[in-house]
């Protein structure tokens, strides 16, 4: 059973960002399952490493969009991203050093961070992006390309 399930109330109304958030939720659920099944440390470490790297990529994309759309709260949002990455990397280091208690603590942090961050911070920038010309979906373009 997943620790987080996607719900449309988490949508920021920007399809690419929603897809990235869904992928992050998938990685968090994968980490939860690996921990719950007491899989090998190597497997858990791989999922954790993937989660940390994808989080960095996701934040970089959000930050690039904030710069493109001249988002006024960019500095604050970037500082929050930096704190989150620092915390997640600290969890990652603790895990790789053998801390056996980091798993559940990390999952709780990730769950709280992701859902709170989406609902509070990301919805604010998405409203700004949409007011300034961002399109909410790329499905129409994909359909035209597919033919």
Write a brief caption for the model.
The protein has one domain: Up-down Bundle (Four Helix Bundle (Hemerythrin (Met), subunit A)).
Which structural traits does this protein have?
147 residues, Four Helix Bundle (Hemerythrin (Met), subunit A), mainly alpha, disordered C terminus, 76% helix, elongated, 5 helices
Q: In CATH, what is the class?
A: Mainly Alpha
Overall pLDDT: 87
For the largest beta-sheet, the strand count, sense and barrel status come to: none
Shape category: elongated
Low-confidence stretches: 139-147
**What's the total count of β strands?**
0
Task: Assign a percent range to the helix content.
Answer: over 70%
Task: Describe the protein in words.
The protein has helices spanning 15-36, 41-68, 74-96, 102-131, 139-146. With 147 residues, the chain is an all-alpha fold. It has one domain: Four Helix Bundle (Hemerythrin (Met), subunit A). Helix 1 (15-36) packs antiparallel against helix 4 (102-131). It is elongated.
SSE topology:
Layout: H1 15-36, H2 41-68, H3 74-96, H4 102-131, H5 139-146
């Amino acid at each position: 059973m997943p620790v987080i399930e996607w719900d449309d109330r988490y949508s920021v109304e920007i399809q690419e960002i929603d897809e990235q958030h869904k992928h992050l939720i998938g990685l968090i659920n994968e980490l939860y399952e690996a921990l719950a099944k007491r899989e090998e440390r190597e497997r858990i470490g791989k999922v954790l490493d993937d989660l940390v790297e994808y989080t960095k990529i996701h934040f970089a994309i959000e930050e690039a969009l904030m710069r493109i759309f001249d988002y006024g709260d960019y500095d604050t949002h970037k500082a929050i991203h930096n704190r989150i990455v620092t915390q997640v990397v600290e969890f990652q280091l603790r895990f790789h050093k053998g801390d056996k208690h980091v798993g559940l603590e990390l999952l709780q942090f990730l769950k709280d961070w992701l859902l709170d961050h989406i609902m509070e911070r990301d919805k604010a920038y998405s409203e700004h992006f949409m007011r300034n010309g961002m399109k909410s979906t790329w499905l129409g373009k994909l359909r035209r390309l597919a033919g």
